[in-house]
Amino acid sequence: MNPFTYVRAQDAGDALQRGGQPGAKYLGGGTNLVDLMRETIEHPVSLVDVTGLSCEIDERDDGSLLIGSATRNTALASHTAVRARYPVLARAITAGASAQIRNMATVGGNMLQRTRCAYFYDDEGSRCNKRSPGQGCDAVDGFNRYHAILGASASCVATHPSDMCVALAALGAVVHLRNARGERTLAFTDLHRLPEDHPEAETLLEPGELITAVELPALPFAARSTYRKVRDRSSYAFALVSVAAALELDGDTVKDVRIALGGVAHKPWRAWKAEDALRGKPASAEAFRAAAQAELAAAQPLRDNAFKVELAARAITAVLGELKEMQA
Ligand code: SF4
């Protein structure tokens, strides 16, 4: 590990001033960043600890929730309003990592965790455009069972590792940001980038910009929502494919639906095509399957991960069927 300084930010202004310095990184729970520093993938000059800034969950009058970025994952997943009104989020968080890691990890840090592509971590033996831009990507023709089937590029086929973020994408969350010029918001689905020719640029955050909170808009039918994660072992494993979904029925017809996928792309993948294909259609297994196939028509599997296309179609169909049964 390289030498670095550590300071605990006193407030958001202090964090911004320090976080805007060259080589500075914000530190949340450290459950990914510290690993990356130990592996010498990340080598910040200074760490600005922002865990003392905002860890409140505000239930607002308009029915939305405003979640401070330093809120621990465990606190968010166990919050009464989250469990009752956004169960997909509680389930996604508890599907991730281990209890010990969830106790440490923050909401802001979870959003900014980096891919677990094994070639990304192998800085002595593998080429990786994300770690060393322009170097090449050994995953494209290598062992790529865990890699992307949607939205990838010849430069990078990595997947985003978060479960929580898949639920946030489905729920239409909004990210609250602060920078030297003031504050702004960003749709959560716009926070992360697809790799294109620059996989090293993972988000649309400006240098030194601080995530202060994430907002969950009021979405009454999200009370009927769930998360399913398909993985190689039943705990402490990243998703091969995951599905976050909420379903609103009008009789036997789909009135509204939210679907997002994990384990398939460089960012949490909002399944806009599947949603469009379902609204106004009968809530049947055939319609669920057709919607899934509409989304996955653009899939471009690699040598080792063609199975993910069918796995994702089946997972979407099964989750929507489960949500329909909940309302029967
Ligand atoms: Fe690096 Fe992306 Fe290729 Fe993995 S898939 S080796 S992260 S460039």
Task: Write down the CATH topology of the domain at 225-326.
Answer: Enolase-like, domain 1
- Secondary-structure content class: alpha+beta
What's the main sheet like?
Answer: 5 strands, antiparallel
Question: Mind telling me the CATH class of the domain at 225-326?
Answer: Alpha Beta
Instruction: Give the number of DSSP strands.
Output: 12
Radius of gyration, in Å, reads: 19 Å
Count of individual helical segments: 13
Could you state the oligomeric state of the chains shown? single chain
Catalogue the ligands: iron/sulfur cluster
Which regions have little confidence, pLDDT < 50, spanning 5+ residues?
none
Summed over residues and divided by their number, the pLDDT gives a mean of 97
Strand residue content: 15-25%
What is the succession of H and E elements? Answer: EHEHEEEHHHHHHHEEHEEEEEHHH
Please, what is the CATH homologous superfamily of the domain at 225-326? CO dehydrogenase flavoprotein, C-terminal domain
Helical proportion?
25-40%
Shape: globular
CATH architecture of the domain at 225-326: 2-Layer Sandwich
- For the terminal residues, how far apart are their CA atoms? 56 Å
Biggest sheet: strand arrangement: 4-5-8-6-7
